[in-house]
């Protein structure tokens, strides 16, 4: 309350007092009491706090004017400014809101950068906000994350996560494997990975894996250039690899491979073998899906065959390693709902493919040396009563003979 307001209140009280004195006339006691009450009222009025004049009717947001699209640190967002701008231009129209008379909308660049920081750091929204690594509130960023991920997925999936659709595309994939892994007729390596998250109470044990944590499974087909050709996320953590493959669309493609894959090709000494996908030992054996022999096998031929599959499988191992190192969120327990976790995982895979094309520093992280990790777990032999399994085993035998004879590499027998 300023001095002018206080003075006006005192004047009003004095005027009211004079009027009251005229009414009471000569009664001294009443006059004395009235004057005392008047002085008390004046004292109280002068102590009243001043009411602040409100300048704005909404809470002010932090300013983003100083931040330009090229000013984001590579270590924070995980990519160079060029890639950041390219991705931002794809989704700007979908995520940028309009300014209103009440306040300006948050820039699309700040929104996208904040989500990338979340992916790259692996920290929670709260931790990033409290450390001032992001300026957006936790409530806002948790709501914006699925919006941005959905925009990226819809815009980029047909370009940077395109499943081979022609015979020529599949033969190009096989040619890369033949050159880089000495593996003919290989159409990719199939592998799974658990993505852990904090399950809701209502989820119960639906997503609980054997480790006791809630997770969804990423099923990915990887080419020789460490790119994802196919991704499927959604199988619960308790599902085996066989069940995960069975509920994916890739299972249908394997059963109708003649409509998708190239015809059988002759390799080596007139060996006519089909094009195949390399899988882990936990995958089902199929005519177009090879898996290693049991590790306990003492046959030299089986060991050579397993080594060649391990060389090809290293491609998928390294692709997942690159993905985890870039987006450390995949190493932590994600504090979001299962459907958002699935969308985030698909988005990370598509950004991985994008960066392998346009980010030289990211491509340089790929190591040329091949790491083979021996698996000492006991394997179970297959049930050969199924005719399809018989056919698949014949294909595996053909490849085993090829790798041990005309396709043998000297270092494999040392």
Largest sheet: spatial strand order: 3-2-1-6-7
Low-confidence stretches: 368-387
User: What about the largest sheet?
Assistant: 5 strands, mixed
Number of domains: 3
How would you characterize the overall build of this protein?
This protein has 414 residues and is an alpha/beta fold. The chain has three domains: 3-47; 74-160, no CATH class; 167-413, no CATH class. The protein is 49% helix and 9% strand. It contains 14 helices and seven strands. It has helices at 3-24, 28-47, 74-77, 81-95, 108-121, 125-130, 138-160, 167-181, 241-246, 249-255, 300-326, 338-358, 360-363, 387-404, and strands at 186-196, 215-222, 228-236, 265-267, 271-273, 276-278, 289-290. The strands form two sheets. It has a five-stranded mixed β-sheet, with helices on both faces. The chain has a two-stranded antiparallel ribbon with strand order 4-5. Strand 4 and strand 5 form a beta hairpin. Residues 368-387 have low confidence and may be disordered.
Briefly say what this structure is:
The protein has 414 residues and is of the alpha/beta class.
Protein topology:
Blueprint: H1 3-24, H2 28-47, H3 74-77, H4 81-95, H5 108-121, H6 125-130, H7 138-160, H8 167-181, E1 186-196, E2 215-222, E3 228-236, H9 241-246, H10 249-255, E4 265-267, E5 271-273, E6 276-278, E7 289-290, H11 300-326, H12 338-358, H13 360-363, H14 387-404
Features:
alpha/beta, two-stranded antiparallel sheet
